[in-house]
Design brief:
146 residues; mainly alpha; 5 helices; 89% helix; 0% strand; elongated
Length: 146
């Protein structure tokens, strides 16, 4: 049986790879590549966050009764990231590699800390709390990815 943590950790790696590729495009001044790959990264990370906030975290909160604490912290960190996504889009549109890379550097620090918390605490808590109910959520996650 695949665990939610396995699925979401793998999704982190996909987001990380897309983020790195977009950064490489910005550093090379490849505007066509950055427009494509930067947009792909932003779609992936925003989808990842949406899955957490719309599906996984509510299921956790409903099962455990915990509406403050870990999910609240993760959502607050997502809110810190969202303006950076907008700044990255603006930098791509302006073909401003310096701005893009500066925002990306700040975002990288946040993502590394955030992902570590999710991977070491939040996702294992989801696996434990949801138990067999995780099968249904995983099916929903996979259907969203299709």
């Amino acid at each position: 049986m695949q665990l939610i943590s396995d699925y979401m950790n793998k999704d982190h790696r996909h987001c990380d790879a897309a983020f790195a590729l977009a950064g490489d495009r910005a550093a090379a001044g490849d505007w066509t590549g950055l427009a494509r790959d930067g947009a792909a990264f932003l779609r992936k990370i925003e989808r990842h966050i949406e899955v957490e906030e719309e599906l996984l975290f509510p299921a956790f909160e409903q099962t455990t009764g915990m509406t403050t604490g870990p999910t609240e912290t993760m959502c607050m960190e997502h809110e810190q990231m969202r303006p950076m996504f907008a700044q990255m889009r603006a930098a791509i549109a302006a073909k401003d590699a310096k701005q893009y890379l500066g925002v990306a550097e700040t975002l990288l620090g946040l993502l590394q800390q955030h992902n570590m918390k999710e991977e070491s605490m939040m996702y294992p808590m989801l696996d434990q709390a949801l138990g067999e109910d995780a099968h249904g959520l995983l099916a929903q996650l996979e259907s969203l990815a299709a």
